[in-house]
Specification:
With 84 residues, the chain is α+β, with helices and mostly antiparallel strands. The chain has one domain. It has one helix and four strands. The chain has a four-stranded antiparallel beta sheet with strand order 1-2-3-4, covered by helices on one side. Strand 3 and strand 4 form a beta hairpin. The termini are far apart.
């Protein structure tokens, strides 16, 4: 059973314009969304697993939100130490 989480909503002038969902890459909804895209764009590839996607509320637009799990900048592995 699919159970995506709505993790973000974009709001413009008090109106939701896009909702962003998160689910595991093998989730039924993720598989369905990827198929919708690859049915139209047959050579589309995904450099990372699709887990996060956006849906426009007023149009026929899907967006994939992808990033690597690798550190994106040299200080990304640093963390703040607790202060007293």
């Amino acid at each position: 059973m699919s159970n995506p989480i709505c993790m973000r909503a974009y709001i413009d002038n008090k109106k939701v314009t896009n909702r962003v969902y998160f689910a595991g890459s093998e989730d039924a909804e993720v598989v369905k969304i990827k198929k919708q895209v690859t049915d139209v764009f047959t050579s589309e590839t995904f450099p990372y697993e699709v887990q996060t996607w956006g849906v426009d509320t007023d149009g026929n637009v899907l967006t994939f939100h992808q990033c690597s799990c690798e550190p994106d900048y040299k200080d990304s592995s640093k963390h703040l130490e607790p202060t007293e």
